[in-house]
Amino acid sequence: MRPLLVGGVALAVATHPASSQPTMARGLVVAPEAGERLEYCARPLVVTLKVDSVAAATTHLVAGIGELRGDEGAGRHTTADEILYVVEGWGHVTVGADTVALAPGSIVHVPPGVAHRLVSTGRRPMKYFFVLGPGGAAGGLRRASTIGCAGAPAVPSPAPQSPRSSETGAGRAVWLDPGAGDRITYCLFPLTITTKIDSSSAPGTRLTAAVGALRRGAEYATHAVGDEVALFTGGSGRAFIGSDTMAVRAGSVTFVPQGTPHGFINDGEGTLEYVVVYQRGFSPAGFRRLGARPGPYCPATAP
To answer: pLDDT tens digits, residue range 122-163?
Structure first.
């Protein structure tokens, strides 16, 4: 163990020589300007892939940034949940029979097999963070980017997949306006989490989404089951994933494999803000239990 002093608090962070972890999946930090850029000829859309099985071989998630001018067109993910978080711009989304307005901070959960259509109505592109859950594949995004492109090589279409019966029309979309959600202030960490998508708001979901605001200090955890991706939306600091510590800032994306110790560090003056998506459909009770634990930032509480 090595001590890490952050905001006057010593944290014990485990370090392991690489030789002792031959099978451990590696985490990933993707800089704001990095990623695989896909320009769509048939749509007014640019997608930058940040996390997929090419960048992180073990992941079950696909994450990226979309920049949309106008109408994206209809889409449907046969077997994967999707979460969309609006970073910049305005517009609306139609999911099934419902149409809702979108603004910076809006978040939408689209269940598997449900048709959806995203439209940007502002003068600037609408920028959004998207995460496809288990069953999603970046190959479909890459193939779609070649449709209608003059001179593009022919890409064979994959065989159609039939959704599992439990997923066909199984759920309604869930959306939250900016600022909405269950706000939890942590005693153990200088952290406020606002839960957005979870198993109570979206029954049957295989993804969980929350927004974090970390004041000077650090938060850390290990998730025994399920990968995690996060987009930093404000501030700057560091992320430690396993034995690696890397700088992050607004626009950075992190990937944490399941079972890997990790956390975020804010050693600056402002607030480090992020949206995080977990592979599992958590209950918000888990967030609340950790939020109630006594620690250096709140008085001890009775058991």
So the answer is: 999 999 999 998 877 788 888 888 886 765 444 443 333 333
Give the list of residues 6+ apart from residue 5 with CB closer than 8 angstroms, or none: 11
CATH of 2-17+178-291, one of 3.40.50.360, 3.10.105.10, 2.60.120.10, 3.30.1490.20: 2.60.120.10
The residue type found at 249 is R
Q: What is the pTM of this model?
A: 0.83
> Residue 29: in which H helix or E strand, if any?
strand 28-30
The C-alpha atoms of residue 65 and residue 140 are separated, in whole angstroms, by 16
Cβ proximity of 126 and 86 under 8 Å: yes
Mean pLDDT comparison of 18-27, 138-147, 246-255, highest-scoring range: 246-255
Domain boundaries, the chain: 2-17+178-291, 34-153+166-175
Whole-Å CA distances, 49 to 79, 139, 173: 19, 11, 24
Question: Which residues, 6+ apart, have CB-to-CB distance to 19 below 8 Å?
Answer: none
Q: Is 34-153+166-175 CATH 3.30.530.20?
A: no
Categorize the per-residue pLDDT at 90 as very low, low, confident or very high, splitting at 50, 70 and 90. very high
Record the tokens describing residue 85, joined without a space.
Answer: 């978080």
